[in-house]
TrEMBL record:
Enzyme class: oxidoreductase
Molecular-function GO term, any one: L-methionine:thioredoxin-disulfide S-oxidoreductase activity
Reaction equation(s) it catalyzes: L-methionyl-[protein] + [thioredoxin]-disulfide + H2O = L-methionyl-(S)-S-oxide-[protein] + [thioredoxin]-dithiol; [thioredoxin]-disulfide + L-methionine + H2O = L-methionine (S)-S-oxide + [thioredoxin]-dithiol
Family to which this protein belongs: Belongs to the MsrA Met sulfoxide reductase family.
Domain called Peptide methionine sulphoxide reductase MsrA: residue spans: 3-153
Higher taxonomy: Bacteria, Pseudomonadati, Pseudomonadota, Gammaproteobacteria, Moraxellales
Signal peptide: none
InterPro entries xref list: Met_Sox_Rdtase_MsrA_dom, Met_Sox_Rdtase_MsrA_sf
Gene transcribed to yield this protein: msrA
Top-level division of the source organism's lineage: Bacteria
Active-site feature positions: C10
EC id: 1.8.4.11
PANTHER family the UniProt entry points to: PEPTIDE METHIONINE SULFOXIDE REDUCTASE, PEPTIDE METHIONINE SULFOXIDE REDUCTASE MSRA 2
A Pfam family that the UniProt record links to this protein: PMSR
Name this polypeptide is given: Peptide methionine sulfoxide reductase MsrA
Length: 172
């Protein structure tokens, strides 16, 4: 098993997307990249910690590659908006890839460079993986547990529709 650590806006959204992918065995919502230890959701929302909302993905590389995860990551959020995804604004919603090894760094940089070559102004941060702090229990599998919640109904279905339209071969 391998791991990937991505931030693409609200972790409820990114978690819901990556849980649909073949070879992904686990997705944990959490926080990374800030200057405090054991941050809380309230601290993150206040913008005082500089942590990003992220997901830690456990995946089987014999079923899905890191490159394929990157393709899904870039297709299901906007990597061109700084500190914003849709109506969610703040540094906690930044686009970020925290790489766990040199190969992930190389592949991530190649993906960013390819998007820039297509004319996209990619602002995705690429940094070594910092300490990951799991979010509070109520955030885990949030969409699956709260499918009729207002935010979930508004923000997540368009991302899942993009996933299903573009990556049908990667779905469970």
């Amino acid at each position: 098993m391998q791991q990937a650590l991505f931030g693409g806006g609200c972790f409820w959204c990114t978690e819901a997307v990556f849980l649909q992918i073949r070879g992904v065995s686990k997705v944990v919502s959490g926080y990374a990249g800030g200057h405090t230890t054991h941050p809380t959701y309230e601290e993150i929302c206040n913008g005082d910690t500089n942590h990003a909302e992220v997901i830690l993905i456990d995946f089987d590389e014999s079923q899905i590659s890191f490159k394929q995860l990157l393709d899904v990551f870039f297709a299901t959020h906007d990597p061109t908006t700084l500190n914003r995804q849709g109506n969610d604004v703040g540094t906690q919603y930044r686009s970020v890839i925290y790489y766990l090894n040199e190969e992930q760094q190389r592949q991530s940089q190649e993906a960013i460079d390819a998007l820039k070559a297509e004319g996209l102004n990619v602002v995705t941060e690429l940094s070594p993986a910092p300490t990951f702090y799991p979010a509070e229990d109520y955030h885990q599998n949030f969409f699956a547990k709260n499918p009729s919640q207002g935010y979930c109904n508004f923000a997540i279905p368009p991302k899942l529709n993009k996933l299903r339209a573009k990556f049908v071969e990667l779905l469970k």
